[in-house]
Write a structure and sequence with these properties.
The structure is a homodimer of 340-residue chains. Chain A is of the alpha/beta class. Chain A has twelve helices and eleven strands. In chain A, helix 7 links the parallel strand 7 and strand 8.
């Protein structure tokens, strides 16, 4: 495996645009000597940010001019049809043409998904792309998919998510058979709907290391390496987690700033609270990957700051270096041969 | 409204049985002079626990003997058919016969649901019972339903959940028009599945204070007073929250016990951490209510300790005192009249 990797960045995407994307790119380049970055977007705005950071293009940092920008609330269909020279689309084009191994965008998720699917096409045997993201657990981390690309899934889709998730972890961690859990609910009488029941059957026959049904709390227990669910359930689980984490950290802050005594206690506890905060910092888990495409596409949170966006870039580079794409298509080829 | 209320308790239910249920009953009786409790279950075991707590039956504390116990993992259908003298069933019978205004059980959820539905029947116009529970939010609290009783819901079911949830909050808080949110996902292109879209239409026309679609993080933001979702999604959201809260508290404890310095910092911060812990203590939110039945049935967490079980008893008493039942059936009658 060669270490050299080129990542195309939609420099205009996200709530903050080049202020965040350019700064994050520079940080990543400084840390990773085998990384090359192509900043895609309005040349003048990118150059302005580079100057502000006392940097300029060189052999590992290129600017690729693109005139248009996809708005965060723009209709994905219209963005795809009308904005052929958007920073997002051009970044994806660079993956298609093999000028970049991966692209990263903090832009409009729907537009990114639709454009990536249209430009790159799906891997053989995969019907739908899925959004997968790493989450912290008691034991380390787990990958959950789908997080919102598909609201109505068939059992076959859930099976494909399981395959893609397992191959992702297998490639990233160099492990043979990561465990796969199917997100379900716990009551005896009412164990899941028909689709989930059928998906469990398919996963059981798939040759994957299928753990079986798991419940919501198993995500953070780290019961399995991969958690499979439809995009509606996955999105609700993710957003609910974000909301709860935010409420907990707000309440913790409120308690430590209640009065002089609690402020002093907070001061004493500060290093501990910082260590704690670092462990659960969601920015470290920024960078959801769009699996199932013929190319690596990583979606950053729209509101990502520099630190968070760096993680999305790193996630993209890691996937290219570990041949995630290839691992998924090889597995699909084997399964399709077996089925034939 | 009279303040006197009688609650029947399935004394044998839950992981701990009479050790917890009897102790919690005594605490509630001491705190609430207008409360009467009927402890249902094996007389000898209940008496043993009462003696251990230096208590005995009196005008506000009765024992109702029941010979059988429903196991936590027992099939709900079999439990219903074969155990006609279970503590759970007899407690529900006491609600049916108006000897008690409500019943509380920490037993097998599926069996409780099936038996309550069979014995008490549904309120007119309600097709399915729903499990509703209070959750803490940044602004106070919200009620979420359904939390797992119904995995496949029609738009009409979701509408009925909205009505029941709104009437529950309206009755408990003496408020006219609590806001109702429909749990959905956020991406523009893919705003929910067909069922949720149709449910939104029904809720919009319902005359309820319908806020519109909300996302997972809105639960803890406290965006609406009521959150409506199907039982699969609700159960995953609840269990995921439990898992995340547990992970966060474990990590916080780990950081404060890492070494001598962090332990000292933890000692200084202890009163603050305790105040924080109290605010997010899930035991304070124990007691999910089974809405839609002709009678108040409250389900406690199976693993509830005394403190948590007290909250379930209090929830039951509160519902009876605030005529939650009546409020729901009146609203259903109005809606059905309007529709006719």
């Amino acid at each position: 495996m060669t270490n050299d990797v080129t990542v195309a960045i939609d420099a205009m995407g996200g709530d903050h645009g080049p202020v965040v994307t350019v700064a994050a790119a520079l940080k990543c380049l400084a840390r990773d000597p085998a990384l090359t970055i192509i900043l895609v977007g309005r040349q003048d705005e990118i150059e302005l940010q580079l100057r502000a950071q006392h940097a300029k293009p060189d052999s590992r940092l290129h600017i690729h001019h693109a005139t248009e920008v996809v708005g965060m609330d723009e209709s994905p269909a219209l963005a795809m049809r009308n904005k052929k020279d958007s920073s997002m689309r051009v970044a994806i084009n660079l993956v298609k043409s093999n000028e970049a191994g991966a692209c990263v965008s903090a832009g409009n998720t729907g537009a990114l998904m639709a454009t990536a699917r249209f430009v790159l096409k799906m891997l053989p045997g995969i019907e739908r792309p899925a959004i997968a993201s790493e989450l912290p657990t008691m034991k380390g981390r787990t990958f959950v998919l789908d997080l919102g690309a598909n609201v109505d899934c068939t059992p076959e889709h859930l099976l494909q998510f399981g395959i893609m998730g397992a191959m992702l972890v297998s490639a990233l961690d160099q492990r043979e058979a990561p465990s796969v859990g199917l997100l379900n609910i716990g009551e005896e009488e009412i164990k899941g709907n028909e689709i989930v029941k059928q998906a469990a059957d398919l996963l059981r026959q798939s040759g994957l290391n299928f753990y079986g049904n798991i419940e919501g709390d198993d995500i953070y227990k780290g019961t399995t390496d991969v958690v499979v669910c439809d995009g509606f359930v996955g999105n609700v689980a993710l957003k609910t987690s974000e909301g709860l984490a935010k409420m907990i950290s707000t309440m913790l802050r409120e308690e430590f700033t209640r009065n002089l005594f609690t402020r002093l206690a907070g001061l004493v506890a500060l290093p501990v609270l910082k260590a704690f905060k670092k462990r659960v910092d969601p920015r470290r888990y920024n960078g959801a990957t769009l699996l199932g495409l013929r190319g690596v596409v990583v979606k950053s949170h729209g509101g990502a700051d520099r630190y968070a966006f760096e993680h999305a870039i790193e996630q993209a580079a890691r996937e290219v270096r570990n041949n995630v794409q290839q691992r998924i298509s090889e597995k699909m080829a084997i399964l399709q041969k077996d089925a034939a």
